[in-house]
Inverse folding.
């Protein structure tokens, strides 16, 4: 059975004609996208939480994460270590650690010195930093301007039911991604470190008088957020099997929008925002009667409307004050 | 005494005038413009090296009347950067002519600039028909064919293999839209059925929504009109969704980068490009030998021979009529049966080479192989969905 087609718009109506398998496939696609967006958005929201800054280079940290992972993979391959599970763990841990460290360094060198300056300065500096990070891959990574093939390090088992194909690697990535978000949530809510982060985000001065090392809390938060971006990058590489120097640009913009629509400073908000954005994109591509090229326009348009209706974000506080 | 001094000065001057042409030739500047950075830079860099080779060989030729200097400019495959560098080249009166552009969107945006400044240009890679046929600028010429020829041959060939149904994806730039327009037109004329078509943005990363819809439509072939980076993503994501259709594309993905990016999944991909494969041309082997001799670190890639031929044509014309933009434009109008390494070149009244051959390619063991020489044509291997 074929859905109704509107050739003038090159799009498709007729969800009624979609079968369950197709809907399931769209849901899994959307969940994977949502997971990547959420991981990026959580980073944005963490940075905003502790320091009230928008770090626009966050998407490019993801790119650096996936390129680091890819380089480590090539290195291991050269050494003859090519057991997929071992490689995957080493690659992911190394990328997260390296990018987490880079995030802390950026916080120390660029973000904290600008703490007293107008927020616009931090925004501009991180925007420019993003360009530097992106262009340095293009110019200095061997053959960096071309897309590269990220290895499939998870088993490619899959099972099909009608139009729905469930792949083992997708399921594994979804579960790991959710676990990672839960882990961050536990760190924030249940550990002393998390308590310090929350204390700093609520009241910096009081936190300092209580003996919390403010700078250290900022470094650690930036390390966690950047490590998460690297993790999202590895998931991205495994999911799409491709990496390119400019992949972080749009992901950064989407992650930022997701954090904004969910409510800055609220981790749950970032997660909801990420999945909401993926849902809107999928709807834009599948269910609306216009070319799928406009799916981003549609998704960003809805986000603008939502933010206009609720400027503090869906799960944000009533006042424009962070958590 | 005074007379003696005057005599020796005059003699010295005479000697200088007489010896001048022997000692130093006049320097003439020519430009190469292409994407040296960005997603399709492998092709741009290969093109630059090839144009540079043409200049180097000419400078080494003792019979050449002038010494040539190559000015290299990066259009980044972006219209705004393209117009900037086109203006830079065109406004520099020392530059007599240019071999320019791989990306159609850039060439379309820049042709007005070349016309305004009267800079003769030979396009070496861009295929949109509008570059030559959308205007009557005498300055614009193109050594490769247009997407019209390419898609006509593509549609005939692919329907001839026995495929019946298609889902088309294309990027919504002028290039992708043009490809989709002409491919769809000729496909329908040849009895192919298009079950659905999706326009996608030129920097899109996720195609799972479009490909899931395509999977439901279950076409024999997924066709893509666009450039390498998106081609790689679409091919990889087809596999992720368990799409078993044949993958077909256009000249935009014929590059080594597509094979590197798509890895093993590139195998069996079909695409079409203007010109004979360089190895099969009379001058092709010689070109590759010379290219290797110079020792460029990058491959000439798919359009290198076209860039070489475009630059060589420019140098030949300058040798013949002298370093004047106007004279070069006038001479280019009458290029007929010019033997280049990509075949015979004849420009029509729009400056379009009328005799470009189209070659069908298939990826076999990590290489773009002409269909006729492939194991797919001999029946040893089979394309998807052909039994």
């Amino acid at each position: 059975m074929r859905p109704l087609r509107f050739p003038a718009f090159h799009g498709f109506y007729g969800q009624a004609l979609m079968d369950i398998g197709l809907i399931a496939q769209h849901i899994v696609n959307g969940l994977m996208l949502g997971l990547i967006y959420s991981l990026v958005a959580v980073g944005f929201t963490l940075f905003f939480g502790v320091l009230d800054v928008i770090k626009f280079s966050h998407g490019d940290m993801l790119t650096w994460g996936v390129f680091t992972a890819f380089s480590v993979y090539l290195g291991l391959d050269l050494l003859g270590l090519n057991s997929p599970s071992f490689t995957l763990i080493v690659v992911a841990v190394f990328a997260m650690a390296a990018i987490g460290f880079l995030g802390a360094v950026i916080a120390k060198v660029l973000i904290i010195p600008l703490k007293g300056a107008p927020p616009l300065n931090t925004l501009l500096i991180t925007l420019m930093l993003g360009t530097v990070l992106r262009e340095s891959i293009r110019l200095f990574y061997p053959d960096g301007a071309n897309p590269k093939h990220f290895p499939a390090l998870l088993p490619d088992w899959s099972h099909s039911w009608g139009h729905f194909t469930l792949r083992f690697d997708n399921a594994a990535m979804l579960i790991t991604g959710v676990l990672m978000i839960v882990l961050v949530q536990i760190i924030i809510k249940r550990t002393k470190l998390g308590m310090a982060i929350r204390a700093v985000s609520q009241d910096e001065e009081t936190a300092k008088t209580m003996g919390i090392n403010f700078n250290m809390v900022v470094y650690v938060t930036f390390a966690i957020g950047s490590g998460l971006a690297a993790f999202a990058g590895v998931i991205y590489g495994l999911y799409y099997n491709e990496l390119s120097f400019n992949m972080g640009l749009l992901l950064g913009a989407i992650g930022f929008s997701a954090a904004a629509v969910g409510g800055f400073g609220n981790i749950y908000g970032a997660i909801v925002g990420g999945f909401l954005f993926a849902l809107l994109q999928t709807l834009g591509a599948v269910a609306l009667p216009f070319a799928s090229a406009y799916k981003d326009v549609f998704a960003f348009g809805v986000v603008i409307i939502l933010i206009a209706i609720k400027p503090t974000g869906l799960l944000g506080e009533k006042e424009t004050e962070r958590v | 005494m005074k007379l003696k001094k005057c005599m020796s000065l005059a003699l010295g001057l005479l000697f200088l005038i007489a010896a001048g042409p022997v000692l130093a030739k006049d320097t003439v500047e020519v430009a190469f413009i292409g994407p040296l950075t960005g997603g399709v830079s492998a092709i741009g860099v290969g093109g630059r090296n090839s144009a540079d080779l043409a200049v180097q060989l000419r400078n080494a030729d003792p019979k050449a009347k002038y010494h040539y200097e190559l000015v290299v400019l990066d259009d980044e495959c972006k219209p705004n950067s393209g117009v900037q560098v086109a203006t830079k080249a065109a406004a520099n009166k020392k530059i007599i002519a240019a071999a320019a552009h791989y990306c159609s969107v850039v060439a379309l945006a820049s042709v007005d600039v070349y016309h305004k400044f009267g800079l003769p240009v030979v396009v070496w890679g861009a295929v949109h028909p509008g570059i030559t046929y959308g205007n009557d600028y005498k300055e614009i010429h193109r050594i490769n064919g247009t997407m019209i020829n390419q898609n006509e041959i593509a549609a005939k060939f692919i329907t001839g293999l026995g495929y019946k149904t298609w889902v088309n994806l294309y990027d919504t730039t002028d290039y992708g839209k043009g490809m989709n327009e002409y491919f769809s037109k000729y496909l329908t004329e040849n009895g192919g059925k298009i079950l659905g078509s999706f326009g996608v943005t030129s920097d899109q990363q996720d195609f799972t929504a479009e490909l899931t819809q395509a999977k439901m439509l279950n076409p024999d072939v997924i066709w893509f009109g666009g450039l390498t980076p998106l081609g790689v993503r679409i091919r990889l994501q087809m596999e992720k969704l368990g799409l078993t259709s044949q993958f077909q594309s256009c000249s935009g993905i014929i590059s080594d980068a597509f094979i590197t990016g798509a890895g093993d999944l590139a195998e069996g991909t079909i695409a079409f490009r203007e010109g004979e494969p360089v190895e099969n041309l009379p001058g092709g082997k010689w070109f590759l030998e010379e290219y290797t001799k110079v020792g460029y670190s990058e491959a000439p890639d798919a359009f290198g021979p076209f860039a070489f031929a475009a630059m060589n044509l420019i140098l030949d014309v300058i040798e013949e009529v002298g370093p004047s933009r106007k004279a070069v434009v006038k001479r280019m109008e009458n290029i007929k049966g010019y033997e280049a390494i990509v075949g015979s070149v004849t420009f029509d009244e729009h400056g379009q080479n009328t005799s470009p051959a189209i070659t069908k390619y298939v990826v076999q063991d990590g290489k773009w192989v002409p269909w006729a020489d492939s194991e797919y044509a001999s029946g040893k291997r089979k394309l998807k969905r052909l039994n």
